[in-house]
Structure formats: C-alpha cells, structure tokens
C-alpha cells in the first residue's frame, strides 16, 4: 500500500481458536466433516473408532485415500487452507478438518502417506494448549513414540491413506469423572448416533453411484448399511416425473434437480421392521419433506423449506433436491455443511411440484391411491392460449385438492370428486381429477 501507513492486526490465535470451537458441530456432524475429506481423497474404505479409555479416550478416523505429503499436511492444518475446490468436491471453506475436530477435542493429530511405492509418512499435531500458551498459529511434529502415532503408522504400512486422531476430548467427556460409567455410556451412545448419521448423510456413496464401487465404512468395526430416505427397494414406493430447474447466479445459471417420492403406508411395506427403519432418526412426521444434496452428500433433511408445513397426512412425502458446489453461494451453505437456505426464486418454483407430491402422499396415507395429478396435455396443434388454459385448469384442480387437505375436509372432497367424475367427466379431466 504505497504512500499509506499499514498495521499488522493478525488475530490472537488463542482467542480466535476458542471462538472457532463453537461454530455449531455436534459429535456426528463433526465426524461427517472429516469423512468428507476422506471421500474427496478417493478413499474406498473409511473406519471410525470411538475408543473409551477414561481421560485417554480417543476418536480415530482412518481411510485408504490418496494421502498427503508433508507440505500438504502442514497446509491442511492451516485455518483457511490455501486451496481451491473443484466442481463436485465436498470441501468449501478450508476450515472443516480443524473446526470439526477442535469442536470435540483439544488435540488433533494427523498421520498421512501419499506414496504407494515409498513407505514415507508425515505426521503433524495441532495442540490447543500450545496455541494458547504461545498465542501463535502453530503445528508441531508429534512424538514418534506416541502410541497413537505408532499405531497409525502400522495401519498405513500397506498403502496410502490418512489417519485423523482426536485426543483430550474435553467437549465429549465430562470434566468430572471422565473414567466413570456415565462417560463410557456417553461414548457408546455417540458412536451409535454417528453410525446412524453417516449411514444417512453418505448413503449414496455407500450404495455406489456414478459407476463407482460402493464405499465401505464402519464404526467400531460394524459395517454401515446405507439409509436411503426414499426406500427404493420397496416395491410400492412410487416416484413422480423428475424435474430440473435453472437458478441464476453470478456468471450464469446453475442446475437444480428434483426427484419426488411417495413411500408406502405401513401395511404396504415389505415388513414392519423396514417401515420402522425408514422412519428415520426424526421419525416419520419430521422426516417428511425436502432432502437437500450437495455433490451427492446429504446436507439437510426434513421439513419443506418454508413452502408448506409438516402434516401427519403427508408424512409419506419425501423429495430429493440436488445441487453442485457451484451453487453454494445461492444456497448459502454454512461452514459445518449442515444447513442451507432455499433461494427465493427456487422456493417459488417448487410450490407446485411440492403440492402435487403432498396431494399424492395424502392419498397414500388415506389408502385411496390415485394416478398422479398432472395437467392433461393439450392437442399439439392447439393454440398457445388453449394450452395455457388447460394448464391453468389442472393447476386449479391441484389447488382445490390442497385446500381440501389443509382444511381437513378430504372425505367431503372425495365425494365432490366422485360427483364431478360422474356428472361432468370433461370438467374432472380438465381439473386433473380423473383416475
């Protein structure tokens, strides 16, 4: 800045790291953020171990991905990593490894190997006690005699990969009696919740997608089974036609894809156990709604994003909304990758397809299945005015059905539909009410 005085006002490392610990991670979401890095590194296997050992309890997340060189590892532990993210990558701000880890622990150790032919490994440690003592952004080489480091090196002896270790779990273990039975049970509970969370958030990777082999993931030695919210293996799950929308953004437009599903009611699931399993961690009512995916990774689920409210009669309705990381700004994704905001233009576009889905889910809930509600196509030779009028009539029929459902007058509405179909079939067809 020629001709102007300037001053270095670098933030206090001790104070800022304390603030960054409170971004808002829970234990399962913090683990998921580390798993993002493993997926981005091309891992085919990821093992999470939550090990209780009193004050020495630890969490280990190991993968067989590409690994990092010594320089890459040091850079990875920088707050605000100096790297860009390609389209389709799960990273965003260059903070996840640090903020997710330190939200749960005071000591983060990373051991990595990037060469398949040379068994050279690098290790770095970020210790909050040292950061606070020196008030500097520093990482150190951990002691090679540290049992954690030795164990990680043994695990990487056969090939590339990275091992992330959390120690000094001050945000996880109780300050008093960290070796007690309550502390042990807490870690067991957190491990179970983490299994459920990872099975849901990464279900597409666990199932295998885009021609890739399924990712193998385990928690405490138990292989995870993907939890797909749309129950595609159930023969009575129905899917509406897929839709695609364009969202304006700086420099052009981005694409958003919508898939809508109506799950079967209890008596049409293959078993009561599968019905209960698909109720999800929030249970049926709160699991209805939009499932928002960023680069195939689930980032938000449940609820209708302000389009409509949750209703017992529409609990079988679920929809997948997909966008890639080029639309991050439009969706206002947060650091922890747990929350997005639907762009205003998209929310308006989604009203009609969401209402259509909810009408069909209401039918399924009341065990009165019907064909999909859709505009009756006008004659291809019809004028634009006629086609527009046909679409408007079908939209009006959908609005009438939604109003009957929301007013809790569905039984009366069914009688009205039956009367229309009997006495005025042409009107019923125009309104999209024909079976």
UniProtKB/TrEMBL annotation:
The keyword Nucleotide-binding applies. InterPro entries: HATPase_C_sf (IPR036890). This is ATP-binding protein. It comes from Micromonospora trifolii. Pfam families: HATPase_c_3 (PF13589). The keyword Nucleotide-binding applies. It comes from the Bacteria. Keywords: ATP-binding, Nucleotide-binding. GO terms for molecular function: ATP binding.
